[in-house]
Structures are given as C-alpha cells and as structure tokens.
Amino acid sequence: MAHVEMRQVTKSFGTATVIPPLDLDIAKGEFLVLVGPSGCGKTTTLRMLAGLEAVSSGRVSIDGRDVTHAAPGERDIAMVFQNYALYPHMSVRENISYAMRVHGTDKAVIAERVGEASRLLGLDPYLDRKPRNLSGGQRQRVAIGRALVRHPQVFLFDEPLSNLDAKLRVEMRTEIKLLQRRLGTTAVYVTHDQVEAMTMADRVVVMRAGVIEQAADPITLYERPANRFVANFIGSPAMNFLPARVEGGAVRVGGQVLPLPPEEATRLGPRGQVLFGIRPEHMRPSGHQASLTLEPQAIEPLGPHTLVLGHVGGERVTAQVDPRFPVRAGEPCVVPVDMTQAHFFDPVTEGRL
Ligand code: ATP
C-alpha cells in the first residue's frame, strides 16, 4: 500500500478543469518531485495533498487513512513555502516553536524539538536572532525547522529555494535531500527547475496541463523519455529534434545519412517519417558513430566544453563539443553523433518509438 495515495483526483476552478483525473502513489520515505512548466498544476496538486485546496472529486489518503475532507491540521503533514513568511518580530526560536506554543505543547517537549531541529539545521548560533538579521539560506532553514518540529508523516515543499541565489540553491538542495534521508520522512517537492528535480528526487513526476506525462527515476527520465515533451524538458541544453526518415538501416536528415547500430535498425524497421532526437552532449565520438554537417552560427566556450549553435537543413541544432574541437562560426563543420544515444519519436503522437 502506498503511503500517500491520490485516486482519480480532479480539480476545477469554475468551468475550467486544471487537473483531469490524476492517480499518484508515493511510497513511505520516498522523495517525489513534481516538475513541469508554469501553470501545469504542480502547486494545485500539492495544495490538494495539504488540504489547502479542496479536491473537486477523487480521494486522497495518507498512511491508509482517508483525508480527502480532512482539514490541513488533521493530515499530519507540514508544508514549506517559497515565501517562508517568518514572523519578523519573533526570534528564530519563537518562530520554530510558534505552532507548538499555540497548541499548548508541553514546554519540555518544545525545548527538545527546537533543540533537535536547530542541531539538524545548524541553527544553534542563531536561535535568539530576528529573521531580518539572517541570510536568505538561514531564513529558509528556519522555515524548514518550523515544519520539522512537527514530526510530520509527510513534508510538502512548494518551490522553497526560488528566492535564493544560485549558489545557495545548490547548497540548500543538498541539505534538504540529506535531511530528508536522515529523517526518512516522505517528501513531495514542487519545482519548475529540472536540475533541482533530477538532483533531489528518488522519482520525478513530469506534468503538463494537469496530466502526468511520465513518472520515473531521474536516469530513466533522461535515458528513456516517454515522449517529446519529457525529452525536451529534461536535459540542458535541450535535446535536438530533427524531422527525419528511417529507411535502409539509416536515419536520413535533410540530405544527410546517419547509419544506425544494427539492433536499432532491426528494431525500428523501415519506419518512414520520424522525429529524430539527439542530445547536444551525445554529439561525440563513439563505437557507433555517424556524423552530421552543421552550419554553425555561434560558438559558446563554457570551459569544460563548448556549445556550437547552428543549423541542419532549416532546423536549429546545438552540439556540445570538446573545447579543442575545430570549429568556426560561418564555416560548415562535421560533428560526430553517437547513434547509440539516438531517440526516435512518432511525428504525430510524439510518443517514444
Ligand atoms: P507555477 O509553476 O507557475 O506555480 P503550477 O504548475 O504550480 O505553476 P498551478 O498554480 O497549480 O500551476 O496552476 C494550475 C492552473 O490552475 C493554472 O492554469 C492556473 O491559472 C489555475 N489556477 C490555479 N489556482 C486558481 C484559482 N484559485 N482560480 C482559478 N484558476 C486557478
């Protein structure tokens, strides 16, 4: 039995259905990340789990208990928001203990829980400070501390790092992940940042327009995206997509011929029109190498590698090459393509072939 279950859950605002029937199972101790473009329904899904938004139909259960109509306070969950909304006039200690004090929790228990949270989060030196005297990362840790002291069954995070600068985001995502592992608490985390999703999740759920496009571990998502949308969303720079034909054991792209590895040729057969997908980082030498002639428009040296932005036929293509790879803007160049890493999608349904 799943720890958290959403069964045929829907959400409508007026006449607009933003979540058609959705099924989601989250295992005990799992770190699940909901990711997708703005407006795809991530936050709405999380808020329905939290009880902050009523479901229009369907059922939500936590640890086997039906909580579909339970108030947020009766669900044994704790939520950390993007805007951490700390009480400015209260110290860190008072902020962390606020909910327990309001509930009349025993003083000794409060002291113990605050001590435990502040130790875990490295907040001991700041307990008597006011939020205005803390850095963004420290404030975010206080917000997490507030959730932690409740010892919830489930943590819900709604883009908790989006107000932090890039360096702090990277540090905090590691901290949150380690903390969740140590506590073994089930977590559901919403972000629109695919790197955050990939690095933190045990399992990533990619959503579009309220629908789950794919739910899988990060590596599966990267290596075997279910469709063009997922393939385009996961990976940076994004996968290249080229209209192509598969025939005679090769991919034909704008007059160029890229031979397929024999087993791929057999699997695909004479397929005709396809959408050929290749990631920029897979434009590299390999045992099953083909090559593609590119008209480079721009060269972007990033240090460890260089991005070549150009065209094949009329289509834009980005290749990630070695910094020493000989290439000049305006001069056609031949880049290797690792055909063992090629992806193929149906040109109409855009599903993986
Ligand atoms: P973002 O990354 O921008 O936060 P999201 O994936 O979290 O997006 P939601 O906030 O869940 O998306 O919104 C999903 C859809 O529901 C959007 O089209 C949004 O406009 C709509 N929506 C959300 N809340 C309401 C509301 N209270 N009334 C009407 N429509 C709403």
Question: How would you briefly describe this protein structure?
Answer:
The chain has 353 residues and is an alpha+beta fold. The protein has helices at 42-50, 92-102, 107-121, 136-148, 166-183, 194-200, 218-223, 228-233, 262-268, and strands at 4-13, 16-26, 31-35, 57-62, 65-66, 77-80, 154-158, 186-191, 203-208, 211-216, 240-247, 250-253, 256-259, 272-278, 289-301, 306-312, 315-321, 333-338, 343-345. The structure holds adenosine-5'-triphosphate (ATP).
Record keyword descriptors for this entry:
2 domains; transport; 9 helices; five-stranded antiparallel β-sheet; alpha+beta; ABC_transporter-like_ATP-bd; binds adenosine-5'-triphosphate; NA-bd_OB-fold; six-stranded mixed β-sheet
H/E element string?
EEEHEEEHHHEHEHEEHHEEEHEEEEEE
Strand content: 25-35%
User: Total strand count, please?
Assistant: 19
Spatial order of the strands forming the largest sheet: 6-7-8-3-9-10
Which overall shape is indicated by the principal axes computed on the Cα atoms? elongated
Count of helices? 9
Main beta sheet, described? 6 strands, mixed
- Topology-level CATH name of the largest domain: Rossmann fold
